[in-house]
Amino acid sequence: MWFEILPSFGIITAVLSVPGFALYGLHKLSLDNAYRRNTDERWERMMYVRDMRLTGNPYQCNGLETISDK
């Protein structure tokens, strides 16, 4: 019958969803932030590099107070 496919469908779905949930935990451990910044566009990459240069942490909110008065 058609319902005999449900157990194998559930197993395949669970196995394929593991990497997505594992990345959440890996980013939380390694970056101390569960979400990655999107760096697909050139502007996003420039902002990532700028934030890394100014504060050392691209996930920290930056404002004018992070720029030195030199």
UniProtKB/TrEMBL annotation:
<protein>
    <recommendedName>
        <fullName>NADH dehydrogenase [ubiquinone] 1 alpha subcomplex subunit 1</fullName>
    </recommendedName>
</protein>
<keyword id="KW-0813">Transport</keyword>
<dbReference type="InterPro" id="IPR017384">
    <property type="entry name" value="NADH_Ub_cplx-1_asu_su-1"/>
</dbReference>
<keyword id="KW-0472">Membrane</keyword>
<keyword id="KW-0812">Transmembrane</keyword>
<keyword id="KW-0999">Mitochondrion inner membrane</keyword>
<comment type="similarity">
    <text>Belongs to the complex I NDUFA1 subunit family.</text>
</comment>
<keyword id="KW-0496">Mitochondrion</keyword>
<dbReference type="GO" id="GO:0005743">
    <property type="term" value="C:mitochondrial inner membrane"/>
</dbReference>
<keyword id="KW-1133">Transmembrane helix</keyword>
<dbReference type="Pfam" id="PF15879">
    <property type="entry name" value="MWFE"/>
</dbReference>
<keyword id="KW-0679">Respiratory chain</keyword>
<keyword id="KW-0249">Electron transport</keyword>
<comment type="function">
    <text>Accessory subunit of the mitochondrial membrane respiratory chain NADH dehydrogenase (Complex I), that is believed not to be involved in catalysis. Complex I functions in the transfer of electrons from NADH to the respiratory chain. The immediate electron acceptor for the enzyme is believed to be ubiquinone.</text>
</comment>
<feature type="transmembrane region" description="Helical">
    <location>
        <begin position="6"/>
        <end position="26"/>
    </location>
</feature>
